[in-house]
Write a structure and sequence with these properties.
The complex is a heterodimer of chains A (about 250) and B (about 600). In chain A, about 35% of the residues lie in helices and about 15% in strands. Chain A has 9 helices and 7 strands. Chain B is α/β, with parallel strands linked by helices and about 600 residues long. Chain B starts with 10 loop residues before the first strand and ends in an 18-residue tail after the last strand. The mean pLDDT of chain B is about 95. The chains are: A alpha+beta (about 250), B alpha/beta (about 600).
Chain lengths: ~250, ~600
């Protein structure tokens, strides 16, 4: 038997959110947190949460599980229940729609802001564009993101400035297109991130890395973007310096 | 959603084209239409990248002549026709295989991160049922892959390009029923916002059902929890037919217990199945293709091994997929997602130990019958009559390129080829004045009936219990092997379940993010699909492709070389001719199907 505490809030009936306690009889095998929720929902159909693939690839069921963001469908209860207690809360930092469902509008807006699509200014050939395996390897660890928002909603910088700081998930995708040898808009992409907020609000706290259910490393991608921006700045400064000399 | 809903207390939103479903086929259709300047919307019950296309692993099969510069789309066509056990429509298969390369190159240009060969071209791997030279040249490598995450890469790429083109999405909206006017034209759908509960009549000149499969009719399935056949449920309730519904693919390798898919690409890369004696048993059943025979063939062989006592584990209820001989490096490079899934759901690292697997419901070959433009039709006296305003694409549709058994990698190709074709056709049709007449308030009220009844329920049956009952009936009576007397019991049981589905109790009547309401509506869709499946299965008195009957073990070309067309009103089955008239070549005549 484990004690499960679930964050409950229905905007139509509840003035304030509250934690509801359930006693859950564990089956004789280990189960995922999602299966536990599905079972509880059979007795209380009002519990609300998102779910789809139930195998960790669609990114629907990100939530705070005993204080750490993760996907309910690939988190075994045995690994997270502490002292036979399990606490489930919505992803932090985003408005709650109901129970474990958060409003992801701001998260998706940041994703769209980085222009998450390949841009190539040359006309496409009749076949595929060629890419060497080693160039393709540069996309590994980037393209696999499932947009579950576990990283961005664990990031204090994103909590403070969800409208201005792009956040780890979208920055990982920004770098996915910068790193793609088929994309020709690298300079423009870097330029759009060069303000004080978009990328520089990342202070390397690394929560994103520790929670990513796919084992990705947004912090590394952000580091790459920052160093490319710095190289660009230095390059710019050199141009201005040499140019200034020529003009005088 | 308070009180009885009618035309006057819900809002009407008007569109030129409406796409129900935001998976691969829906988003490929919408991409085409987003570029056209027409007013369109994608209605998706989940944020589009949560759609089930995301779970596709192994790849997209297409003769792009990368692994083999001499590959030929006609060989792909031959394989697909043979794989379909000769009831795939040859004009549609010809269209898919010949248009395929264009569609795949388009995806690459959109940014899909395909794996690569040393020469920089798209990586292709061998998959089941693939051959060179019309079956005479040995195994082909024709499945284009992004590691073992091709569906994820494809779905995200399509979403990204929809964002690029400014496509309009109604995300987390649930479509309830089709609105049909007195001319039997489809004029849109009733839908509601899951987040707010707001109900609307989404009126449209063209409505595309791209709602995917319905694997959740079975207790054990590789399908996502959202695969509840919503589009097919709607079209069956509206009285439109469904084709080849007895044809359900059981994927040979679902993880035992969890049901998660393990890609055929594992066997393509050199993995193979073993029984409790450690024997590579597929050598006995398919001496040439072995583990890469058609999926129906492999699934049946596995079940026979288990039935004959050579299953593995304490209950002898599964077999093993051996991969460790491929080595850690290959597994990490080519099958990283499988290694992850296997560790999570089977507790096994394939680098060291084989994965416990069992045939698991995977794909619905049947669906709403359409032509190659996605246009849905009804059929009377051997004549197909298009349903104005109604289209379907992807797994929800039956165009039919998969016939009685789909080949691995052909579903992703189906999505993009026919999603694109439907988009092109609708664009042309609407710009030349196509469309439908108005629906009146009675038409709209009948489409609101189901929602009203559920909202007004004060007692009745429990959604979770009835769903479990339905899934068990389907699993027990309509599985890999089928028999008339058992199926009759199944059909009877479904009659009772229909009564329960008509009288569900919705406990939660609230507006905001009410998943209780969504699940009740989904269950009613599952029932429609289950019943169509059950009756079609019972009436097809032969074994063909995925439909294997103990009591009719042989293929019967004399009587059943045809599609089945299920009529939801009469609950009866008609026969419909298979197309044997490809445009550019001679048809492939039916032959004995051996691998």
């Amino acid at each position: 038997m484990i004690e499960v505490n679930i964050y409950r809030y229905n905007p139509e009936t509840d003035k304030f959110p509250y934690m509801q306690k359930f006693n859950f009889e564990m089956p004789d095998r280990d189960i995922m947190v999602l299966e536990l929720l599905n079972t509880l929902k059979e007795s209380d159909p009002t519990i609300s949460y998102r779910r789809s693939c139930r195998e960790g690839v669609c990114g629907s069921d990100g939530m705070s599980i005993n204080g750490k963001n993760g996907l309910a469908c690939i988190t075994p209860v045995s690994e997270v229940a502490k002292g036979n207690k399990l606490e489930l809360r919505p992803l932090p930092g985003l408005p709650v729609v109901r129970d474990l469902v958060v409003d992801m509008t701001e998260f998706y807006a940041q994703y769209e802001k980085i222009k998450p699509f390949l841009q190539n200014d040359t006309p496409p050939p009749n076949q595929e564009r060629l890419q060497s395996p080693s160039d393709r390897d540069k996309l590994d660890g980037l393209y696999e993101c499932i947009l579950c928002a576990c990283c961005s909603t664990s990031c204090p910088s994103f909590w403070w400035n969800p409208d201005k700081f792009v956040g780890p998930a979208a920055l990982l995708q920004a770098y996915r297109f910068i790193a793609d040898t088929r994309d020709t808009r690298t300079e423009e992409r870097l330029e759009s991130l060069s303000d004080p907020f978009s990328v520089y609000r990342c202070h390397g706290i690394m929560n994103c890395v520790s929670v990513c259910p796919k084992g990705l490393n947004p912090n590394k991608a952000i580091g790459e973007i920052k160093s490319m921006l710095l190289t660009n700045k230095r390059h710019e400064a050199e141009i201005i310096a040499s140019d200034g000399g020529g003009r005088s | 959603m308070v009180g009885h809903l009618n035309k006057d207390n819900i809002q009407t939103l008007e569109f030129d084209a409406l796409i129900v479903g935001g998976g691969g086929s829906g988003m490929r259709t919408s991409l085409e239409l987003a570029k056209s300047g027409l007013k369109t919307a994608v209605v998706s019950k989940v944020f589009p990248t949560r759609s089930h296309t995301v779970s596709a692993q192994g790849g997209i099969t297409c003769a792009i002549q990368s692994a083999d510069p001499n590959d030929d789309w006609r060989w792909h066509m031959f394989d697909t026709v043979k794989g379909s056990d000769y009831i795939g429509d040859q004009d549609a298969i010809e269209y898919m295989c010949s248009e395929g390369p264009k569609a795949v190159f388009e995806l690459e240009h959109m940014g899909l991160p395909f794996s690569r060969f040393e020469n920089g071209r798209i990586y292709q791997r061998p998959f089941g049922g693939q051959s060179k030279d019309f079956g005479n040249g040995g195994q082909a490598s024709r499945t284009c892959a992004a590691a073992d995450r091709t569906g994820h890469a494809l779905l995200h790429t399509l979403y990204q390009n929809n964002v690029k083109e400014g496509a309009n999405f109604l995300n987390e909206w649930f479509a309830v029923d089709l609105v049909k006017n007195k001319f039997s034209e489809v004029t849109g759908v009733i839908a509601f916002s899951i987040e707010s509960g707001e109900v609307a009549y989404l009126k449209s000149r063209a409505t595309v059902l791209a709602t995917g499969g319905a694997g959740r009719i079975y207790a054990s399935t590789t399908n996502a929890l959202i695969n509840t056949g919503d589009g097919l449920g709607m079209s069956l309730r509206a009285g439109f037919p469904a084709q080849d519904m007895e044809m359900w693919q059981f994927h040979p390798t679902g993880i035992h217990g969890a049901g998660s898919l393990v890609t055929e690409g594992c066997r393509g890369e050199g993995g193979y199945l073993i029984n409790a004696d450690g024997e590579r048993f597929m050598e006995r059943y398919a001496p040439n293709a072995k583990d890469l025979a058609g999926r129906d063939v492999v699934a049946r062989s596995m079940v026979l091994e288990i039935l004959e006592g050579r299953g593995c584990g304490p209950n002898k209820d599964h077999v093993l997929l051996k991969l460790d001989h491929l080595g850690e490096e290959v597994l990490n490079a080519k099958l990283p997602g499988i290694c992850e899934l296997s560790k999570t759901f089977a507790g096994v690292d394939p680098v060291y130990k084989p994965i416990p697997v069992v045939p698991t419901c995977h794909y619905m070959m049947g669906g709403t019958p359409t032509n190659i433009h996605g246009q849905a039709f009804t059929s009377e006296n051997e004549i197909d009559n298009e349903v104005p305003g109604l289209f379907s694409v992807g797994e929800a549709a039956c165009v039919s390129v998969h016939g009685a058994n789909r080949l691995g990698g052909n579903s992703l190709l189906d999505l993009v080829v026919f999603g694109r074709a439907a988009g092109l056709h609708i664009n042309e049709d609407l710009k030349s004045g196509g469309g439908v007449e108005e629906a009146n308030s009675d038409d709209i009220e009948s489409a609101l009936h189901r929602l009203n009844k559920l909202n007004e329920s004060n007692s009745g049956f429990e959604v979770a219990e009835v769903k479990r009952e339905l899934q068990e009936v389907m699993q027990n009576y309509f599985g890999v092997f089928r028999r008339g007397e058992f199926m009759e019991k199944g059909v009877q049981a479904l009659e009772e379940i229909r009564n329960k589905c008509d009288n569900l109790h919705l406990h939660d009547k609230s507006e905001s993010f009410n998943t209780n309401r969504v699940e009740a509506l989904e269950l009613q869709n599952l029932l429609e699909v289950a019943e169509a499946t059950a009756i079609s299965s019972l009436k097809r008195n032969e074994s063909r492709g995925a439909h294997a009957r103990d009591d009719f073990p042989e293929r019967d070309d004399e009587n059943w070389l045809c599609h089945s067309l299920y009529d939801p009103i009469k609950k009866d089955l008609k026969k419909r001719q298979v197309n044997f008239e490809p445009k550019t070549m001679e048809a492939f005549p039916p032959k004995v199907r051996a691998y």
